[in-house]
Amino acid sequence: MLLNEFLENSAYSNADKVALVYEGKRLTFSEINNAASAMGDALILEGFQKQDRAIVYLDNPVESVISLFGILKAGGIFVIINPQVKVKKLAYIISDCQAKVLITDSNHTKQISELLSEITSLKYIISTDEGKNKELITKIRLIDFKEITCRKTSNCRKARCIDIDLASLIYTSGSSGTPKGVMLNHHNMVSAAESITQYLENTQSDIIFSTLPLSFDYGLYQVLMAFKFGGTVVLEKGFIFPEQILRTIVKEKVTGWPIVPTIAAMLCRQNNLSQHDFSRLRYITSTGQVLPTNHIARLREAFPGAKIYSMYGLTECKRVSYLHPDQIEKRPGSVGKAMPNTEVYIVDDAENEMTEAGKPGELVVRGSNVMQGYWNLPEATARVLRPGRYPGEKVLYTGDLFKKDEEGYLYFLGRKDDIIKTSGYMVSPKELENVLCEINDIIEAAVIGVEDDILGQAIKAFVHLTDSSKLNEKEIINYCHKHLEDYAVPKYISFCGPLPRSDSGKIYKRDLR
Amino acid sequence: MPAESKIKEKIITFINDNFIKETGIAIKDDTSFLDEGIIDSTGVLELVAYIEITFEIKIEDEEIIPDNLDSVKKLINFVRAKLENKSQLSA
Hints:
The complex is a heterodimer of chains A (513) and B (91).
Chain A: H1 4-13, E1 18-22, E2 25-28, H2 29-45, E3 53-57, H3 61-73, E4 77-80, H4 87-97, E5 101-104, H5 106-115, E6 124-127, E7 141-144, H6 145-150, E8 166-172, E9 180-185, H7 186-199, E10 207-210, H8 217-229, E11 232-235, H9 242-251, E12 256-259, H10 261-267, E13 283-286, H11 293-302, E14 307-312, E15 321-323, E16 337-338, E17 342-347, E18 353-354, E19 361-367, E20 373-374, H12 378-384, E21 385-387, E22 394-404, E23 410-415, E24 420-422, E25 425-427, H13 429-437, E26 442-452, E27 456-465, H14 473-483, E28 492-496
Parallel strand pairs in A: 1-11, 3-4, 3-5, 5-6, 6-7, 10-11, 12-13, 13-14, 27-28
Antiparallel strand pairs in A: 1-2, 8-9, 9-20, 14-15, 15-16, 17-18, 17-19, 19-22, 21-22, 22-23, 24-25, 26-27
Helix pairs in contact in A: 1-2, 1-8, 2-3, 7-8
Chain B: H1 4-18, H2 41-55, H3 66-69, H4 72-90
C-alpha cells in the first residue's frame, strides 16, 4: 500500500466527509484529493521525476497537507520543514537532499531570496500567495499554488510508485550539530500508521485535534492516520491560549487529542477544566517524555472519560511502544511494551541481549516501521542500523537507555548522547554551541538541559566571554532567535570563566550541572 | 487607576524586553502576537503573570483568550476594564 492511498481511498468511500478543519475552513476528502491530484499532475508537467525531493516550508497546514499528497502523487519525496527554521538551516537541507521544488509562502520569500544564489538544485518555487513579494524572486521561476491546485486533472503520465520507494525525509537533530534526513519509504509509514491506529482503536467516527506542527512526525501522523481511517482532523496553530483550545475541543466534539508533556503541564495549571464538557473525548496520547505522575492524576480527574496513552518513539521508526491505559495508575513511569507488529529488546555495550529485569541498556527496535537510513550518511546509518538476531535483517539501535520491569514493561532512562529533549523536541547541544560561538565576544560555550516543570528539560547555555566584552543576556538570546527555531533558544544564559575540560579538551558537562 | 498611556508604556516595554526577537522592530498596536509568532505558549503564561503583578489584578483561566490578550490594543482594553471593575467593587 502507498501512503497517498490513505487519502485516495477515503476520497473514494467518503468523498463529501469533512477531513480537515483549520481556522474555520472545512475541507472534504474529495476537495483535498482533487487539489493534491492537480498539484501532482502540475509537478510532473514541470519535469518532476519519480523520487525527486520537494520541500514544504509553509505556515498554513492545509496547504502543507495538499502539498505533501501532491508530491506523493507525483512519485516524489516530501520534506516538511518547520516554518520556524531559519534560512541557513533551510539552505543546508535543500542542498543536502538536492530538492528540486520548494513550496512556500510570501512570509518566507524575503529569506529565501537571499539564498537562491547558493542553491543550485532548485528548479522552481511554488508560492501559495504568488502576488505578494513576487519581485524578490528573480533568479528562479515562481509558480502559483492556487492556480495549479485548481486545474482539472490532466491525462499526463502518472508516476508509478511501489511501497519500497521513499515517501518522506524527516530532518532530525543529530549529535554532530547538523540535521540528518531520516529516509522513510511508503511501507515504513503505512506500517507505523497501521500499528498505531490499531492500538488506539480508531474508527471513522474519530475526530482528532492537534496543535502539533506537521514538521514533527507526531503532528504529521495525526493527519496521515485520520485520512487512513476516514476520520476528521482539526488543526490549530500551536498550544498558545489554553482556554480557546479547550473550547474548540468541546465545540468540534473531539474524540482524540495528542499532546506532549509540556501541554499537560500547562493544562494542569488550568483551574476551570471541570467547567467544560469533555464527554466526547475518548483518548489523550502523550509522547516526547514521560508524563509526571501528578500530571497523569490531574488529567485523569479532568478528563474522566478519556483513556491516557503514554508512548515512546523516535523519528527513525516513528513509534516504538505504548502503555495500555489500564496500566497507567500501576506503572505511571513506564512507556509500556512494543506496539503491534514491532519487537524490542535491550542490549549491553557489547550488543548482547539482556533479559534480566532492572538492568539498564540500549533499546533495539525491529519492525517494518524502521527507517531505511539517513540520507547521504552511510556511516551514521551503519551506526544505528545494525545486523539483528536473524540472518539478513537490520535493526534500529535507538541511542536511548531503557530498563524493563519483571513483567517486561519499559522505562526510559535517558539518552546515550547529550541530545536535549525540550517541549517534545530534540535539540542538539552541538548545533546551539556552534551558533553561540559565531558571536564574536564568545570564546567558548556549552549547552545542557536542566529540569523544568513545563518543558521537561529547559536549555541552559554557559558562555565564556572575552574580558572586554559587554555582551548581555538579551543580546545573546536575540542572536539565537535569529538563527534557531524558537524551541531551541536557551531559556537560561550563565556567564562563566573557562569551561571545565578533560586533558583531551572535552568539556566536562557533568561539572556544569 | 493608571492612565492609559502608562498602561501602554508598561505593556510595550514588557513585550519588547521579553518577546521581540529582532532589535529595531516596532510593534503596532493591533499586531496579533499569535499571527506574527511573537508569543508562544509559555510566553502567554509570562505575560499573564506580569499583568497580574504589575496591575494587581487577577486574571481568570477563561479570560486568557485571544480577544483579551492578542495585541497591545486588546491588552490595554482588557487591563483598563479589569481595573475599572476592581475600582467599582472597592468603591
